[in-house]
């Protein structure tokens, strides 16, 4: 089952707020499993049908936001959250190897399915999907 087009939206563009304000991790540093900084949480992608956070959008590189590249990380990879940081269970090398998203070149459904597969998760709504059992976005 594919992730349907139009069901994923940036929280910042949705006009919605998270029911639990503590889950709003935008602006926090993202660290890989070895403690290396990957960037900052720029936004959260929500499934508008089920009103759940599905992906963390991380901006990395660039200077003052110019030239920064977005990375998308499934919330299933979020291992820990503090007031200042978000830790994921992958290395920076694994994150760097994830499929890159270019909205002008890539089909959204295909990209998100490929991304979930790269990280070893079934896409939400697909057979075999397991909601996050640990961490922050259960």
From TrEMBL:
Coiled-coil annotated residue ranges, if any: none
Highest taxon in the source lineage: Bacteria
SUPFAM superfamilies in the record: PRC-barrel domain
PRC-barrel domain location: 21-81
PANTHER family according to UniProt: BLR1072 PROTEIN
Protein name (Swiss-Prot/TrEMBL): PRC-barrel domain-containing protein
Naturally occurring in which organism (per UniProt): Paractinoplanes hotanensis
Organism placement in taxonomy: Bacteria, Bacillati, Actinomycetota, Actinomycetes, Micromonosporales
